[in-house]
Every structure is written in C-alpha cells, then in structure tokens.
UniProtKB/TrEMBL annotation:
Signal peptide: none annotated. Pfam families: PhoU_div. Gene3D superfamilies: Phosphate transport system protein phou homolog 2, domain 2 (1.20.58.220). It comes from Streptomyces griseoloalbus. This is Pit accessory protein. Belongs to the UPF0111 family.
Amino acid sequence: MRFRLTPRETSFYDMFAASADNIVTGSKLLMELLGADPSARAEIAERMRAAEHAGDDATHAIFHQLNSSFITPFDREDIYSLASCLDDIMDFMEEAVDLVVLYNVEELPKGVEQQIEVLARAAELTAEAMPHLRTMENLTEYWIEVNRLENQADQIHRKLLAHLFNGKYDAIEVLKLKQIVDVLEEAADAFEHVANTVETIAVKES
C-alpha cells in the first residue's frame, strides 16, 4: 500500500458498498421474475424500478461527495468510473425486467435462467469485493472470477441467439426475446467493467 500523509474521505467506501448491495437486490428480483406467473411480473417490475431509483440515488450521492471532497481515497476519474459502471448494471437489469413486462412475454427461452444465474453470482462477488477497497487486499480473485463469469455469459448468450433463430419462433417474437437476452448480456459486460475498474484502481494504489 502507498503511504499517505494526508487524510482521505472514507465515506466513498460505504457508498460503493451500498450501491453493490442494491445490485444484489436487483439480481434477486431477476431470479424472482424467472419463477413468477406472468400476472405477477408487473409488481416485480415495480420493485425493480424502485431498486433502480435507489441505485441512481446512490450514484448521485457518490458524485456529490466527489464534487465536494478535496481529498479522495483514489483518483477522481476512477471513482467516477466505478460509480458509473455500478449504475449501468442496475440500469440494464431494470431494462430487462421492464421489457419482459412491456412485451407481454409468455415464456422466456431456455437459457435465460443461466444468464440470470451468472448475473446473480457476479452481483454477490461485487458486493463482497467493495468493502475490500479500503485496503485493496484480497481483490485479485474477484476480478478474475468476474471475468470468467463474463466469458461464460458470452457463451450462454451465443447459444441463446442460436436457439432464437432456429425457426421455432416467429419474427416478432424473435425481436422481442433477442432484445431481452441482449440487455442481460450487457449487464454481464457491465459487471466486467466494474471488475476491470477495480483492478485498475488496485494497480494504481499498489
């Protein structure tokens, strides 16, 4: 760890942890959506929308703290990048749930549950990693595992696309379902962006 003579604003650590915990909430709502009756999905979407708003509030709190802090725990651009990437995850998860409801999807294609399971695991790892930003210790396994999960998500996404284009679905249904699985893939990419940002911060602080 680099030795510092100046005090640092430490509330960022708590705010990053809160943002990541909210993402876990979002991933649980995605899991709940999988087993829900179509008639119950609108209510789940409402709760996801509330979680996404809470995520926005957490991100704005970080930005406000960043703008009002003279000394920060690490580079300002990295704080901004990490907060933005965490916010992106919630945005994508909320969008996926909203699309399922808006498109009145009767049944999600086989493989979506695997996508969501990957996202749930990445959410858990991200929430576990955020408190370690205080010391920058025990983070290597986190970003390695999230990168592995993102590669797994890529494979699942490709299989899903092949399934959607196998002739079982009509053209309109393909368009609807493809948009949903694409957004879930973007959420997986966003988890990797968070992990890459954490790795960048850790390297700079080592």
